[in-house]
């Protein structure tokens, strides 16, 4: 468990575990979001490189016939490699987008559950009066908003 969560007062062990789980899910979501962004950038780079290479090496020389252009593009190993990398990048970009959306949904559901169950998690009067300290720590340290359900 992360030390700021362990050091929280006015919070029982079960609530601390829930807070730790929401922190871990946020971390996984942020990591997947970063990798998705990287895959978008890489795919765009390879697509741009492929288009430039295709235009200057194949399209300019074989523009008189579609079949000649098609045949030349299949015979050129660099062209096929760039096209393959671009297609693989596009596929990985879509897979990472699905993973990102799934992890975001899991994170948001757990965060909303904590917000909904806050009356149950901080039952005692003293805990209820000081729960804003827990919320502030989660907001400042991990950028997790537990004040309300909206993003």
Structure report:
The protein has helices at residues 3-6, 13-59, 66-75, 77-116, 118-121, 125-129, 131-142. It is mainly α and 151 residues long. Helix 2 (13-59) runs antiparallel to helix 4 (77-116).
Please give a handful of descriptors for the protein shown:
151 residues; 81% helix; 0% strand
Task: Please indicate the count of domains.
Answer: 1
Beta-strand residue fraction: under 5%
Question: Please, how many helices?
Answer: 7
The Cα radius of gyration reads 25 Å
Question: Fraction of residues in helices?
Answer: over 70%
In the predicted model, the low-confidence regions spanning at least 5 consecutive residues are: none
Structural class determined from secondary elements = mainly alpha
Number of strands: 0
* Basic shape: rod-shaped
Termini distance?
A: 25 Å
User: Order of helices and strands, N to C?
Assistant: HHHHHHH
């Amino acid at each position: 468990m992360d030390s700021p969560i362990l050091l929280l007062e006015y919070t029982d062990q079960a609530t601390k575990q829930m807070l730790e789980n929401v922190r871990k899910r946020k971390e996984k979501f942020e990591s997947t979001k970063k990798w998705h962004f990287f895959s978008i950038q890489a795919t765009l780079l390879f697509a741009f490189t492929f288009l430039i290479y295709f235009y200057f090496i194949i399209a300019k020389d074989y523009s008189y016939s579609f079949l000649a252009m098609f045949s030349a593009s299949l015979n050129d190993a660099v062209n096929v490699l760039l096209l393959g990398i671009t297609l693989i990048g596009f596929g990985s970009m879509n897979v990472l987008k699905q993973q990102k959306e799934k992890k975001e949904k899991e994170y948001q559901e757990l965060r909303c559950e904590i917000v909904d169950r806050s009356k149950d998690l901080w039952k005692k009067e003293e805990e209820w009066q000081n729960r804003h300290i827990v919320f502030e720590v989660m907001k400042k340290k991990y950028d997790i908003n537990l004040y309300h359900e909206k993003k």
